[in-house]
């Protein structure tokens, strides 16, 4: 019987103690801040608020400022905690074979095309590769120059043809501009298509998804 009473007592103490301690700390802080802010607030509100209400108003405003401050601290702490959790999860992803390659690639592409405004790619084109009738997505880097341009017929351009699903690797093709088919999709949309292996297909200018050749006939 005595052991149950003792257990209940300690349980109640554990529940009440944090509340009492929190109240005491808050009361102490508000009281000290109130003493510091009473005179400045009294100078501001003396012509707006009756003298007998200035102390109450100062206490109220002090309490509100304290709540805002503590809420800001909590918000900042949550951001730090979430960032640490995300960083820990990211480290795990980097250690998983195959997933690490895909995740790292998607992150690099996202940073490159969604955060940075300037990219090395100018536009997206279709290039017949590895044979006639087989098309690859290519990203135009620049017009060819120097010896390459002098020793080729007509205007040629430097086109990067990426691999799927890792577009950080690929080949550089020097292609006559007349043999390329310009596309309206953005560079970012083209990269999404490459990374997804064609699962993510951007919409054309008419708002309809691109269809294969048989559907267009």
Strand content: 5-15%
Strand element count:
5
Envelope shape: elongated
- Write the element-wise H/E pattern from the N-terminal end onward: HHHEEHEEEHH
Poorly predicted ranges (pLDDT <50, ≥5 residues)? 207-217
Note the total helix count. 6
The chain-level mean pLDDT equals 77
Biggest sheet strand line-up: 4-3-2-1-5
Largest sheet: 5 strands, antiparallel
Assign a percent range to the helix content.
55-70%
Structural class call reads: alpha+beta
Q: So what's the oligomer here?
A: single chain
Rg over C-alpha atoms, rounded to the nearest angstrom: 33 Å
Supply the number of structural domains.
2
Q: Give the termini distance in whole angstroms.
A: 89 Å
Report a brief summary of the structure.
It is built from 6 helices and 5 strands.
């Amino acid at each position: 019987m005595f052991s149950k009473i003792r257990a209940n007592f300690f349980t109640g103490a554990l529940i009440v103690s944090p509340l009492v301690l929190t109240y005491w700390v808050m009361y102490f802080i508000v009281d000290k801040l109130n003493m510091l802010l009473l005179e400045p607030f009294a100078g501001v509100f003396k012509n707006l608020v009756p003298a007998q209400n200035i102390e109450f108003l100062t206490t109220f405003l002090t309490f509100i400022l304290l709540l805002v401050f503590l809420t800001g601290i909590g918000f900042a702490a949550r951001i730090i905690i979430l960032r640490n959790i995300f960083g820990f999860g990211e480290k795990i992803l980097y250690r998983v074979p195959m997933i690490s390659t895909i995740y790292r690639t998607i992150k690099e592409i996202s940073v490159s095309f969604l955060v940075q405004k300037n990219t090395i790619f100018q536009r997206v084109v279709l290039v017949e590769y590895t044979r006639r009738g087989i098309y690859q997505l290519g990203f135009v880097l620049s017009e060819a120059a120097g010896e390459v341009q002098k020793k080729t017929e007509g205007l040629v351009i430097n086109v990067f043809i990426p691999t799927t699903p890792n577009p950080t690797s690929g080949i550089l093709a020097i292609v006559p501009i007349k043999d390329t088919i310009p596309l309206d999709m953005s560079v970012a949309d083209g990269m999404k298509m490459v990374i997804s292996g064609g699962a993510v297909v951007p919409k054309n200018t008419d708002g309809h998804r691109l269809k294969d050749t048989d559907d267009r006939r």
